[in-house]
Amino acid sequence: MYDARQEPNEFVADSLADATSKAAEFFGTDAGELRIIVPKDGEIYGVHGQTVITAVPKNAKGPQPSGRSGGDDRGRGDSRGDDRGPRRGPRNDRNDRGGDRGGRGGRSERGGRGNQGDDRARGPAGISKSTPEAPRETLPPEVKKAVEGSKGKAVGKIGAIGEFLLGAVELMKIGSFEISESSEGDYLIFQLRGAAAESLQGGDGRATDALQLVANQVSMRQSEDAPRVVVDVEGGGDERENSLSKLADRAVKRARDTGRSIALDPMNSRDRRTVHVTIRDIDGVETMSIGEGRYRQVLVVPEGAPEYDDAVNESA
Asked: Containing domain of residue 247, as a range?
């Protein structure tokens, strides 16, 4: 039977120690019995600057689904869920069809079969076919429009992770969108554009962080060497800038506290500029971009760190 505690899982917390503690509690074992994979030294995760680890018990046997692949929740064979309704019982007498099939009328009118009550008790538990249906809820027009228009469109070819993200965002019912996939170095980039992207990027950006975290969990379950997933969501305006400014402040504090450089998640040029501008007037801390391509990381460098001189030269 499938057991999520027999395969790698990601854990997010404010520090490495807290994330490790979460993993030990989830797996019901001591931290020393876990195999823990951590990001590159000094890297922090998401808009909220948290630490993410991947952990799995050292003696894990891996997922062991029973029967047909896809898990028990697919409801195959005789294990149908209640939402599909009960199976029809065996037809002991094919002549006892009653008049609800239409066209022939009740046979009792022609004599001989006069138990009309059986005709009305064809449904589950003898519920009469004449029972009126419950009234359906009517959605407000604006909600109905958003739900009906919550369709995603793949621009170009997308793989399994892209299909997962497309389906997940569609289920959120927050508007239409387009999704595209690209690869840059060790990162798999997914760009979301459209009404759904605006909704995801609104507020404090936690929805985008959560979506990226789950996508990385799915990716890690496919392969431990899977590339890091980055979800780039268009929009957000002032709220997005505020979230990035707070992230920059937290990165500065962590860099000063540890005396080591802190690498943020890969970002597009717009978001990187927001972080650079937020930090440039803070004394004793510099920033620099590392990596190649459009999606690069911002490195927050405290004075005294090995990269400090390079960061000063880049910002000059």
From this structure: 240-315
Query: What does the pLDDT look like over 164-197, one tens digit per residue?
Result: 999 999 999 989 999 999 998 888 999 999 999 8
CA 28, CA 57: separation in Å to the nearest integer? 10
Q: Are 262 and 251 in contact (CB under 8 A)?
A: yes
Contact criterion met (CB below 8 Å) for 267 and 300? no
What pLDDT was estimated at residue 181?
96
288: left (phi over 0), alpha (psi -120 to 50) or beta: beta
Please state the length of the chain.
Answer: 316
> What is the dihedral angle through the alpha carbons of 289, 47, 154, 189, rounded to the nearest 10 degrees?
30
Number of domains in the chain: 3
Rounded average pLDDT over 138-142: 57
**Which residues, in sequence order, are bridge partners of residue 262?**
300
Q: Residue 24 in contact with residue 70, Cβ under 8 Å?
A: no
9 bridge partner residues? 55
Distances (CA, A) of 127 to 103, 118, 178: 22, 11, 46
**Residue where one domain finishes, among candidates 211, 235, 259:** 235
12 and 41 co-located in one domain: yes
pLDDT tens-place string over residues 48-68: 566 777 888 888 775 433 443
Q: What does 161-190 look like in DSSP terms, one character per residue? A: HHHHHHHHHHHHT---EEEEEEEETTEEEE
